[in-house]
Design goal:
Blueprint lengths: L4 E3 L2 E3 L3 E3 L21 E3 L16 E4 L2 E4 L8 H12 L5 E6 L4 H11 L6 E5 L3 E2 L5 E2 L4 H14 L4 E4 L7 H10 L4 E4 L3 E4 L1 E2 L4 E2 L5 E5 L4 H12 L6 E4 L5 H10 L3 E4 L2 H4 L3 H15 L13
Parallel strand pairs: 3-18, 4-7, 7-8, 8-11, 11-12, 12-17, 17-18
Antiparallel strand pairs: 1-2, 5-6, 6-16, 9-10, 13-16, 14-15
Helix pairs in contact: 2-3, 3-4, 5-6, 6-8
């Protein structure tokens, strides 16, 4: 049974990876999960300089998922290279580094610092607020997305994956802009903007007021957007959004994703990704699928 997939020339032993921000760089999970079994570890977002993140409280449980407003807290690229990437070099799994920034220059500086490391690919988080555009996310305007993709592609020595925001009118417009600018792949969806109010205290639950919603409740939206993008562009897609089981993952693959990322599930079950890998294997056996590529985009 073949579970290998290829994205931008990089081969993955299976199509399952962590969603950025839900698995650290694997260090916190390494005693619980065999990282060698994963298709890839996608790291938490890293920026050119340390970010403090948002004030607390910044996580809240909601029906069918969770809200987070962590604010991409990270120690900066220098600490990340020395600590996280050196840790991951011990494992036989692909490493995808998620990169964030507040200006095009921030992203470029981080990518240039990461170019000569053991990272296999870069996932570019364009849901960050663009400080020069009045805090509108890079991924919410097609021309801004094209511009940043084009500039990063010109300096990157690794394949790049643009991580698309679902908080747009037409996700296919964004996918096409990323493809036209030279992105090697796209990943979607990032979190959906949400809010929770404590009616007893008459206050917002999150200090940031709004947060990114993830978890099973967003899965149907994510599957639909992956399907739309698979029909709009020719580059590979990494699908994510509420994947809890192998069956969920198969749904994304059938919609057109080449690989999948597991996020919120890691918080309630550290072995979630291993369970998803096993679930895909079970599905393939049950349905006599000898090669996973047979079911990718089959609908």
């Amino acid at each position: 049974m073949n579970t290998k997939v290829t994205i931008a020339g990089v081969e993955f032993k299976n199509p399952v990876m962590s969603a950025s921000g839900t698995f650290g760089s694997g260090m916190e999970y390494a005693s619980l999960v065999d990282l060698n079994k994963l298709g890839a570890v996608v790291t938490k977002g890293v920026s050119n300089i340390p970010w403090e993140g948002n004030p607390t409280p910044r996580v809240a449980e909601v029906y069918g998922g969770m809200l987070n407003a962590i604010g991409l807290q990270n120690p900066g690229v220098d600490v990340f290279i020395e600590r996280d990437l050196s840790f991951l070099s011990k494992y036989d799994t692909n490493v995808i580094v998620n990169v964030c920034g507040k200006s095009v220059e921030d992203y470029i500086e981080a990518v240039e610092r990461l170019n000569d490391t053991n990272a296999d690919m870069f996932e570019i988080n364009v849901s960050c607020p663009n400080v020069k555009e009045g805090a509108i996310a890079f991924g919410q305007k097609a021309d801004a997305l094209f511009n940043i993709t084009d500039k990063i592609k010109k300096v990157s020595k690794k394949p790049i994956i643009m991580k698309l925001s679902p908080n747009v009118t037409d996700i296919t417009e964004m996918a096409k802009a990323a493809e036209a600018a030279g992105s090697d792949a796209i990943s979607l969806i990032n979190t959906i903007t949400g809010m929770k109010i404590d009616i007893e205290r008459r206050k917002f639950v999150l200090a940031n007021k709004t947060g990114g919603m993830s978890g099973p409740a967003i899965k149907p939206v994510a599957v639909r957007m992956v399907y739309q993008c698979a029909n709009a562009v020719k580059i590979p897609i990494i699908g994510m959004g509420g994947i809890m089981t192998g069956e969920d993952a198969v749904e994304f693959l059938m919609a057109g994703a080449t690989a999948v990322a597991v996020g919120a599930a890691n918080f309630i079950n550290p072995s979630a990704m291993i369970d998803v890998i096993d679930g895909i294997d079970n599905y393939m056996r049950k349905h006599n699928v000898s090669d996973i590529n047979e079911i990718i985009a089959c609908v």
